[in-house]
Amino acid sequence: MISKERKFWIYETMNKIRYFELKALKLFEENKLRGSVHLYAGEEAVAAGVCSQLRDEDYITSTHRGHGHCIAKGAELDKAMAELMGKVTGYCKGRSGSMHIADFTKGNLGANAIVGGGIPIATGAALAAKLQKTDKVAVSFFGDGASNEGTFHESLNLASVWKLPIIFVCENNGFGISVPVSQSTSVENISDRAVGYGMPGVTVDGNDVFAVYEAFEEALKRAKAGDGPTLIECKTYRTLGHWTGDPQTYRDKKVVEMWRDTKDPIQLFKKRLVEAGDFTEEELDKVEEDAKIEADAAAEFAINSPNPDPSDVMDDVFYEC
Amino acid sequence: MSKKTYATAIRDVIAEEMRRDENVFVMGEDIEILGGIFGCTRDLYKEFGVDRIRNTPISEAAMIGAGVGSACAGMRPIVELMYMDFTLVAADQIINQAAKTRYIFGGKAKIPLVIRGQQGIGRGNAATHSQSLETIFMHFPGIKVACPSNAADAAGLLRTAIRDDNPVMFFEHKALYASKFEVPDDPDFCVPFGKADIKRAGKDVTIVGSLLYVSRALEAAAELEKIGIDAEVIDPRTLVPFDTQTIIESVKKTGKLVVVHEAHKVAGWGAEVVSQVVEGAFKYLDAAPIHLGAKACPLPFNIELENAVVPSVEQIVEAAKKVCNKK
């Protein structure tokens, strides 16, 4: 059972992510934003469903498609958008751009532009949680593509052998850029790979908040009980391009439209919330409206923020002891 | 002072730092009961337990990545690699993650991580287990690189590395583990990073070398003395940060420079030293500097072939004679 308050948080967070992403896309199309920008719109149920159950002191690592995880783990839209625009007011002072947003105060150990790069890092954070005898957990978000990287296999094995408090959350969005999962991956369900590492694996509908929430709830219990890791595969779909300039010649537009029009996780969740009588349509529309306003304000903040000073470019290579 | 082997000095510092700070722990292959194949963690599991002297699967990327992650989460991990050659298996976690994390996160991360292990010639380990890789890691901003040449430096540099809040690559040399040296007993004995050590003072020629090539440079200096050449031997001790100044001051005095290392000569760190000395002290040079390093072929197994690939003491002597214009 998800509390009403938490349902509201999830819905609000999903909308924040959605409008942040759409705003980022618009800014990219207007040439106000450069670099590699990978949008998460359409996959919000995973980040929001998982992070609604985490505290600030719990850790996550994220991916090149990381804005959603960062926002769900507490990132403020204005600082995140400023980072996308390379501004000094951004989370990383304009050093990282879209692909490496981090906020250690919220347990976000960073988005990671290397596919599979964050998985061992989250595993290490879980090791620290265990060695320090805390009840913190770590979550590693990664995509279907990362499940073919060595770091995925090494980390699952390590976490299982050491019974670490970590949950591996695979977002299977159907494609590694242009290559469909069926061409790249040896198993139909990536969660099947959990068997090889002696941990439970479960596949859920990644566009269904309730399914993600429940699977994660159980994995979290297991992690906190000291029973070790779980692999959760959330099957979803990338309705936008791999990056903002993707021509998307590799897939059928009709399939994309079908996902966008009938399986949008926000619309599906909204319908359930209204049907259950948790909130009225008007109340939820207001949440959506507020998210739009917040995303617009974030863009304004970012546009009006100063660029970093090139004379600081050598700062922070090392921690000065 | 106590006379100790290089391996024992390393082991003792790990133990002392683990006693001092409960966040320090070690993970690596075969480090628990076996104590590491060179004994650098021998018996430590008995005192510290298997949580803190932690055997790992043979998964270098996961070990080092877990080092980065646990460091980000407040621990001070030491990751032992059985051979530093295996850094290449885990290169992404070192070069893209450990080295860059602090900078790209706008200075928010602290990564007190030590990656240590041995490298080099001397045991017939052949091409993939005998390389000298310190130069590679000098190239990427964000990691410090230490290369101790004796037990005292090993102890002092390792303690500094463990107490440093940055990732440190700590290159030990397999042929030095059994060598003995007087090591200070002070449990706070640290050798500062970025401070080269003049291992032998001299006035005629500056010879820069590290790791195994400090003792070889000293052997060469003893030979040179017989023919009236007084060599100054400098060990940079850390390649990052690098103490250019001590070398430049020496060259101002001697006017001649030979740099020697076991790493391949092509684009080896000696080339960087020559470059910096030429930029910083050109007018003091009486002769073109000579840079010696391993030939551009993989390290072969056969001991005679192995020795043929790396610089010999004789070659160091010849190079010094050449820059001194002595037949």
From TrEMBL, chain B:
The keyword Oxidoreductase applies. Its cofactor is thiamine diphosphate. InterPro entries: THDP-binding, Transketo_C/PFOR_II, Transketolase-like_Pyr-bd, Transketolase_C. GO terms for molecular function: oxidoreductase activity. Keywords: Oxidoreductase, Pyruvate, Thiamine pyrophosphate. The keyword Protein biosynthesis does not apply. It holds the Pfam family Transket_pyr. Residues 4-179 form the Transketolase-like pyrimidine-binding domain. NCBIfam families: PRK09212.1. This is Pyruvate dehydrogenase.
